[in-house]
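Hello again, I could really use a second opinion on something today. Take your time with it, there's no hurry, and the full record follows here:

___
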Amino acid sequence: MDDWLALSDLALPEGDTSPLEQGLFLCETALPLGAGTVLLEWHHDDGTHRSFSVFADPQAGIVVLHRAGQLMRRHVLPGPLPFGQGTARITYAWNRGTGAWRLSFGRIGQGEECSSAGIGPIALSRHELAALCRRDGAALRHRSLLWFGVTQGAHPPERAPWLGLRTPVDTARGPVAAGALRVGELVRTADNGLQPVLRVNRLRLPSRGSFAPVILRAPFLGQGSDVLLSADQLVVLAGAEVEYMFGVEEVLVSAGALANGTIGRLDGRQAAIDCVALDLGLPELLLVDGLKLLSHGALAEPPLPVLLPFEAQQLVSLMARRSLFGAA
């Protein structure tokens, strides 16, 4: 949770007006965008005249405007920029120690990045972050803006596997919501019976754009109810298709590979989400409402083969042809 200082739609404590020595503001937006799009705009006039805005234009480029009293900065990444289809990420980094800023743009999954840099940034404060993230309309957001956040790291935090707080995990005392599990709780595993939870990692992460989670829909994989998971969460698949393609009874695939609209679908209803990752020490297959999911936090080899993305895509396509999954 400490990686993110702020995330859109999550409440933050207000009052600390001291500037952050360094930070990285980032947002993701759906493409294409029209000319002169104001993605985010916040103004506050309590005598200090503060504002923070992000503008985007396919030809003019990206502009970040930041004002604190009589001091105003206009940071520009000149266009034209590749505003095609897909999802774009915009990042704005500042460092008061070096006096430098950097503004970048790229489409996710395209391996491209356009950037510009300069000196003399104005640093955001935690008080301003709290105002930006409030859900009461203090900051105007364009409908294409998926989410935004701020971290103090030099790079955005990586995505992580996780379970939704309500995901029912099998334990010695029956199904328990993942968010209610505590250290020492005995959970059921597919191969090694009851195992204690060594750590419950409570996470607060974006849940749109490249961070969008997956809802695995019941009963396509044998579960009794819909299950919310990170797209990076590894799930066990079994059946005739697995044996035919890979010569083994079970394999592990990322939940994101199952988001074909039938078995699972991406869920972007929230800009940010609270979730958990369960660490059992060694990688274990958790039993979750009829599913088998790999536990988190272990660096050892997983107990089953993990499919590469193209292998998972081929397997899911073959499975979807069965009438069980609604295909002809």
